[in-house]
């Protein structure tokens, strides 16, 4: 969420930067609400001061035996007026908060212009996409032919956009998650967490999922208790520090977790309906960093490297792109996407987004640190996928497929699996 005063002071610059991401800031409405709010606060404060003075006069006049009728009437009028202003103030505060919660983060000026992946800037490519002497199959056909993936039974259980993994497929999912966690905790310095998968509305609001993306979330509750299933571990990890002041010596805070993620994918029906690319439930290892705003840019580059390390460990071909301002997520000011090569589609597909949110989420969740003067200041937050298990599995199957229907797996997974190959019948082979 933004500081209203900061946006108003930026004026045309705020309008310009938000326009780059397709958002039209109604500066006049923001200024009006902010002005009315401040005027009401001043008026209420003045009336309370007068009410206090009148109350004192009532006591003094009563002690002197004077007539307090008019003074008591004035005291009642003041109290009524204060209640009236406070009621109006609550309405204005709600309107201002709703407006501020709806305004996306200001994109970084280094983000390219544009509003789609076509306008993204490629930073680098790593690895050479495999050239097959045969027509490569997609991961759905490979998974079902070997018996390690079962989409039909998943649909029977839960409807479309779910998957069941079996045997070597289930072992592969577990191995990938463990490998990623080991990389992040042993090599990259993250602390592993186990977090709740159900969180409150306030927690969702803290990282920017609410109110903007409510239709994309799965929600549940008991009696009057409302809870949301997390769309990513970013939500509980970041909010672990909500309403706290983190000592500068403890920064950066680096956290990772392996969780299921739940997304309704509202508005995406008809896209990626086949396979593991876009599911209602999927597993992911997430990275979150809370840092001093002064170091956030450097921390972002470091986090991109942490996500890349997972792909490099697996020998998967990929590329890194910088997203344009208009295609950057609601809460982010700058995002790098990492795209893995998918042979059956003859293209790169997103497997990780790594974003710098600046102080946007920290303001919403009230996460602070201290400046050199010792005074509290907002921290900065970053997060990235490191990595989603399903999409990584899809890339492994497709990039490792052989003409006989078997799948060769990366050597890095052998310590976790105990086998290097999945035969055409789905059996593990050492």
Give a structural overview:
The protein has 13 helices and 19 strands. With 430 residues, it is an alpha+beta fold. The protein has an eight-stranded mixed β-sheet. A three-stranded antiparallel β-sheet has the order 5-7-6. The two termini are 53 Å apart. The mean pLDDT is 95.
Structural class assignment: alpha+beta
Low-confidence stretches: none
Give the strand tally. Answer: 19
- Determine the mean pLDDT: 95
SSE layout:
Elements: H1 4-10, H2 12-19, H3 27-63, H4 69-102, E1 121-126, H5 139-146, E2 149-150, H6 151-158, E3 164-165, H7 168-187, E4 191-192, E5 198-199, H8 201-206, E6 219-222, E7 225-229, H9 234-239, E8 244-245, E9 253-262, E10 281-291, H10 296-314, E11 318-322, E12 334-342, E13 347-356, H11 360-365, E14 367-370, E15 376-378, E16 380-388, H12 389-400, E17 407-408, H13 414-417, E18 421-422, E19 428-429
Parallel strand pairs: 4-9, 8-14
Antiparallel strand pairs: 1-11, 2-3, 5-7, 6-7, 9-10, 10-16, 11-12, 12-13, 13-16, 14-15, 17-18, 18-19
In short, what is this structure?
Helix content is about 40%, strand content about 20%. By secondary structure, the protein is of the alpha+beta class.
